[in-house]
Amino acid sequence: MxxxxxxxxxxxxxxDPAARSTWEVLTCYPGLHxxxxxxxxxxxxxxxxxWAGRFISHLARFLTGIEIHPGATIGRRVFIDHGMGLVVxxxxxxxxxxxxxxxxxxxxxxxxxxxxxxxxxGKGVIVAAGAKVLGGFTVGDGARVGSxxxxxxxxxxxxxxxxxxxxxxVKSADAQREEQAAKMGFSAYGVTQGDDPVALAMKxxxxxxxxxxHQIALLWQAIEKLSSRSRELPMPECVPQDAALTEGxxxxxxxxxxx
Length: 259
Description:
This protein is of the alpha/beta class. The protein folds into 2 domains: 2-192, UDP N-Acetylglucosamine Acyltransferase, domain 1 (3 Solenoid), CATH 2.160.10.10; 198-257. The protein contains 8 helices and 15 strands. The longest helix is centred in the last third of the chain and has 34 residues, at 197-230. It is elongated, with a radius of gyration of 27 Å. The mean pLDDT is 80.
């Protein structure tokens, strides 16, 4: 019991720069209190003391503002930051080292009793503030769910889901991204610089347009060379000479605007 408590306190001090001391974490962090009470409630639930489990869960909700069903499975070193309004359903499973913020819902979309109705979070998943993860699917290890996202589908390991309904904007966690993430440290609220799908789409369009601009300039330069040699292929009058031979598309400036 005390080993788990020490683990919980250590993970909070590691991930929350506002945590100044062990005593402060032990006495002032409702996420820690909710997890400690949940372990008692879960023990009662799994040993047939269903009413006692529900009552402890209800008491924890009253004291912390965090509602975790006693049937839910919570892993080790889970960090609930702030936590107010967080709801975890009966068949939900939260893996080791996950981080859940305030307003998160791990809910179900089925009314079938005994079925797997709530999501399973893999190891190291971050679910940001206000996100709703609804259904009996799996969110892979190291995945991130952005703030206020409504997630209704599985997420591959290492991917990021944002939006309503949530879209997968990073399909895989390649070695370079993981190296950069390690340099940056813990990603608060499940947000990184490349998560915005609109910005990503705009950058893709800008890069595509820049490529076209470059190719057109090269074509006109080749035409000019041929024209100067043979004098039989004049430059079309509708195209100014300077516009045809130089690139005027500033892709870098436009990319900076959508960052």
